[in-house]
Amino acid sequence: MLHKFIAALPLLSLAFLVAAGPLDLREAAPGIIEDLLTGILNIVQQLIKDVLSGVKSGINDEISAKPLVCLTTLDPCCPCELPACPSIHGANIISSGYDVSAELTKQFTGPDGQCNDNARAAIRFGFHDAGAWDKDSTFGGADGSLMMDYGEENRAENNGLQGVRTLLRTVQSTYKVGYADLAQYAHNHATITCPKGPRVRTFIGRKDATQANPTDKLPDVHDSADNLIALFQRKGFSAHDLAALVGAHAAAKQRFVDPSAAGMPLDTTPGVWDVEFYNDTLNNQGGKNEKVFVLPSDKVLSTHPKVSDEWNAFVGDQPHWNEDYAKAYVRMSLLGVQNLKDLRECTKTLPKKKSL
Ligand code: HEM
Ligand SMILES: *[C@@H]1O[C@H](CO)[C@@H](O)[C@H](O)[C@H]1NC(C)=O
User: Fold this and answer.
1) Tell me: the pLDDT tens digits for 18-76?
2) How far is the CA of 57 from the centre of ligand 1 (A)?
3) Could you give all domains of the chain from N- to C-terminal order, each with its CATH number?
4) How far is the CA of 166 from the centre of ligand 1 (A)?
5) Among the atoms of ligand 1, which is closest to the Cα of residue 219?
6) By the 8 A CB rule, do 299 and 281 touch?
7) In CA terms, which of 86, 165, 217, 306 is 20 to 30 Å from 242?
8) How far apart are CA 42 and CA 2, in angstroms?
């Protein structure tokens, strides 16, 4: 019986694929996750494959309130108690998406209804946890190591993330969720906490780290555009993906690149997930009168021939950027994750998207 069901899965997903139609026909970037998505796939693996190839959107706007009877056996986004937790989630990974979501909404929303400093730090935290990986790494990636006790918070590139790390560790111990899942869940939650942010498809079920991530895999703000493009390519991202990803600086501030201008935002509206960043970066002359701080890396990327067409296309086009960001971030949130067959989608537990 089970056998027949599994045999029917590829057919089912094929039907889905035809019905969905292509959203984006650009060439897929190289990357090891595609190597894991071959042969017979379950529904979630097929979904991930379809998002990465542009057949399905990386955004999912479906929302579900916490069910009255919330059991992980009925809904994988509900909490469960050990030892009843499905073993697929690993020893210490207990999902309780609805409760974590409510908690993060409190932590990430400012009095003005926009996303606050905790949220922007969480957005960066998810990237720094997952991004310390490339296709030659045998460990690392989206494994929660930055939140765990491996000392990564003391690395120079993680300066400024210590506060949100402490916050997330409290959430982890309160709700007993996996570190790896929480790092990515918090990124996606913070993104949607910013008005205009996309509801990026959110998966749970990753395994937690057993050691610190490899060093020297995160970008240097003073590096050349060619080196940055190559660094992200080794993680499976195209130059276009990179153009979309750095748009997260729409919700960012800097403190350590120029400490004399600590707290300066990287776009005019850091509490809003909008495309102002792309225009702001292009127009900024870097003088003392500028209200926005432009990172040297963003400046060189914005004019690089492999990036600039996409960069300019994002100016004034929020839906285009949100789609491309979500697609690229789904890949980010799964870097180094091997047990794709165990994952479940819990996007429905994220809050509603906000307009301004
Ligand atoms: C070329 C790639 C990138 C470089 C060189 C870079 C570099 C930086 C630097 C230097 C800062 C300022 C840190 C500080 O002084 O406090 C920053 C902040 C930030 N970055 Fe990036 N970044 C890159 C890509 C990304 C990506 C892919 C994301 C998310 C997906 C991201 C999200 C953020 C956020 C949200 C902040 C603000 C943190 C806060 O205000 O607490 N960055 N980035
Ligand atoms: C981009 O910025 C320039 C200069 O600040 C402004 O004149 C223009 O209207 C902006 N364009 C968009 C689409 O926001």
Assistant:
1) 333 344 444 444 457 999 999 999 999 999 999 999 999 999 999 999 888 888 778 88
2) 25
3) 3-217+328-349 (1.10.520.10), 225-322 (1.10.420.10)
4) 19
5) 5
6) yes
7) 165
8) 12
